[in-house]
Amino acid sequence: MLTKNKITAISNGSNVCADIVGFDFNDYDAQDVAEVRKIWFQYGVVRFRDIDITDEQHIKFSHHFGEAVIHPKQLQEGAHPTQKEILVIANTTKDGKPSGALGNSEATWHTDTWFYERPPAGALLRAIALPPTGGDTYWVSMYQAYETLPTYLRNAVKGRQIFFQSVYDAAGGLRLNKQEPKSDDIREWPGIVHPLVRVHGDSGRQALYLGAQGVREQDSWIVGLPMDESNDLVAQLWQHTLKGEVFVQKWRLGDMVMWDNRCTMHRRDSFSPEHIRIMHRTTTAGERPV
Fold first, then answer.
1. What are the φ and ψ backbone dihedral angles of 168, each rounded to 5 degrees?
2. Angle made by CA atoms 83, 135, 13, in degrees to the nearest 5
3. Where are the beta strands (DSSP E) in the chain?
4. I want to staple 39 with a disulfide (CB 3.0 to 4.6 A). Which of 9, 84, 187, 279 is the partner?
5. Which residues of the chain are under the pLDDT cut of 50?
6. Which of 265, 259, 268, 269 is nearest to 238 (CA)?
7. TauD/TfdA-like domain location, by residue (predicted)?
8. Which domains can be identified in the chain, with CATH numbers?
């Protein structure tokens, strides 16, 4: 009788991400999934290397970490032709139109759909086709961002809430079904209020929650503060966060990365439009931040 491989986490030189070794996507049980979940909660980001799985296996595995949710890009150019749960991130075209989301441009630091009432808990991203260079993805721990705050900033964020506008995306474009606001004051725009420091629904740990680093000068407001004070505090929090440890994923075929959207932020490098990059992603439902 064959003995199953022991599932282990191997540090790749980062406290933000670990490689999971010994998980068999063709033969696993609830105990195996529990072990992966434990490692995921510890690091926030986990990576599987040298795997060869189908979209169906990708989706099945995702279901163990929560109900599937549709990413807003799937309602536009990122829809998969046959698998409704998969977001296609690609710079390919079909009949002169994009056949994937995000193209080849840089994606700035963000937490996924931070402007939703219930942002997703997690995402699983798998490499299908890669350019020879570029398109690297970066993650930072928002646990670490909060836990390393100097005392004066820890006191400044205590009990605070942050408002995120939902009219423009991080690239400055109007979101689907949104109209240009009549006021210049973002506090009067459609949006959502979340805690500036959220408690992770599973680990119980606290994480700083900043939303996204957009191209606009101002996309958020710390509720109750004068706008200039809010802008100054937000800027300090971003500066502090991005001084923290960053995990850099240099993609290779056979990689799948799963991240916890409740306690991490990520960004992506641009790459040459002469090369193709195709990624398949699933997204799992999360709780309202508290």
1. -110, 145
2. 105
3. 8-11, 17-21, 45-48, 87-90, 93-94, 97-98, 101-102, 107-110, 122-129, 137-141, 161-165, 191-195, 197-199, 206-208, 220-222, 246-249, 256-260, 264-268, 278-284
4. 9
5. 1-2
6. 265
7. 16-283
8. 8-140+247-284 (3.60.130.10), 142-241 (3.60.130.10)
